[in-house]
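Figure 6 in text form: structure in, sequence out.
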């Protein structure tokens, strides 16, 4: 009985880890509005892959991950910020008009780019490991479950929670798609891309500040 309760807890962790409106959620919104439900969902699947990896790290190797992040903090800021800036630029310069026509013509599709962009964006924010670890601690999984591959079903339940969230998130958003004009979608793409670029700039700025003004090593 306790095992099934832990699986339900893992499912909750997956849902809760996906809810915050961060850069990945912005990317899913942009993909859904411009290309339809399938594109938004497969973008969310990329986020699910990253969250699943982070769940594995949170259970098995949190101490190592924390040490690695602390040691290479500035490189993570710079590299992660540049990745976000590039993805944000791609979002801002995309052509939602062409994609919207495909959606209106019932030819909504997705590409591997949608999936890979979400993975790149998720990996650029390794701090999310600590969010998942905090959720695990909140529901008591880390205190009750031994660090062995017996926790695989719990990790899969975390993954299932993220998949369910992104499916219904993109599905619900796609149902409001017809409420938006092409001009609205164009501006939404530009604004959301700009937000992601700003987040990237902040991360790069943080890394540069640490190296130049705090004399921290660039590792």
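Output sequence:
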């Amino acid at each position: 009985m306790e095992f099934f309760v832990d699986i339900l807890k893992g499912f909750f962790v997956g849902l809760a880890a996906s809810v915050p409106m961060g850069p990945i959620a912005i990317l899913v919104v942009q993909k859904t509005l411009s290309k339809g439900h399938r594109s938004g969902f497969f973008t969310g699947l990329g986020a699910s892959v990253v969250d699943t990896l982070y769940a594995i790290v949170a259970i098995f190797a949190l101490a190592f991950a924390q040490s690695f992040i602390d040691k290479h903090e500035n490189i993570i800021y710079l590299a992660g910020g540049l990745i976000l800036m590039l993805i944000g630029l791609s979002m801002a310069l995309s052509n939602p008009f062409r994609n919207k026509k495909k959606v209106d013509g019932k030819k909504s599709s997705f590409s591997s780019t949608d999936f890979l962009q979400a993975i790149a964006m998720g990996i650029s924010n390794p701090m999310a490991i600590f969010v998942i670890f905090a959720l695990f601690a909140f529901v008591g999984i880390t205190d009750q479950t031994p660090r062995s591959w017996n926790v695989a079903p719990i990790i899969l339940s975390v993954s299932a929670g993220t998949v369910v969230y992104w499916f219904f998130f993109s599905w619900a958003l796609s149902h409001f798609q017809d409420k938006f004009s092409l001009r609205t979608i164009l501006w939404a793409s530009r604004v959301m891309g700009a937000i992601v670029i700003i987040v990237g700039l902040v991360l790069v700025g943080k890394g540069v500040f640490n190296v130049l003004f705090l004399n921290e090593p660039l590792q």
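Caption detail: Residues 182-212 form the longest helix (31 residues).
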